[in-house]
Amino acid sequence: MVVTSAPTTRRTRRGTRVAALVVVVVALAMVIAASIALGSNRLSLGEVLHALFAYDGSYADVVVRDTRLPRTLLGIGAGMALGLAGALMQAVTRNPIAEPGLLGINHGAAVLIVFASTVFGITAPSGLVWFAFVGSLGATALVYAIGGGRGASSPMRLALAGIAIQAAFVGVNQAMQVIDTHTLDQMRFWLVGSLANRDLAALGGLVPFFVVGVVLALLLGRALNALSLGDDAAQGLGANPAVIRLTSIVAVGLLAATATAACGPIAFVGLMVPHLVRLVAGQDERWVLGLSVLAAPVVLLGCDVLGRLLASPAELQVGIVTDIVGGIVFVLLVRRLRTVNR
User: Does residue 2 register a pLDDT over 60?
Assistant: First the structure.
């Protein structure tokens, strides 16, 4: 019988994680290059390089510098926010299918954004993000009030509560848009979830919320490892479970609010990425969070590029593509959970 020592096992696990980090960084660089180079407007490599390094205002330069580059930067930021929010929710709730889009949190943010735009005429993302933050926190509280209690540990009960609340929020959004046709025209592509036609200068007001959310999330890794051992064990290690959960809720609210205010309610990214990361990183939340923040933009930008190419010369918005891909992953995950629980 071969006995593997603990130090050897730890070295192997660490080597796997470092290798995964390298792969994710390379994949992120590749998908960024694809997002800048590929699209419904077919450009040569020379035209793309000219636009990046010798901009002179030509048609190809405008497509790359004024359309694709901002879209790529937005995809990186939104992907980071959604991936971290999903990883945080799964760690805090110990629920493998917790995710801001699936549980209606993004749509809760969207409801107040549409409300603020319809009633108060607010259109600046820096103003809308406050409404998005309140909406995301309110949706979180509502999900746990309906799907919580003694059944809070049940993934299916929490998911059903989130799906029901999401359906209600979608209905409210549609009602507000039907009442105000001007808002309907403005919000149509945004509510689908899109990275297209976004003004980065206007989105600058979201950066402080994004930065605070990312920093809070990444700092919670060690505390989440303690919390995974149970509340009593976490307290014995010097952690405060109530503070950890409250900080996590604030971080998720900030991340979901900024992503939703910037590009609309995009689902399933926060569900898929943490599960893929845990296959190589294990249950150490420091590595899960660190890899999720890099892997989620790979998934989001990859889906955005796929949407541009599949419907060329038109485009499928990224929210549609993530719904299709994420829906398949969700079904597979539910089937896996049923098999494990038998």
Answer: no
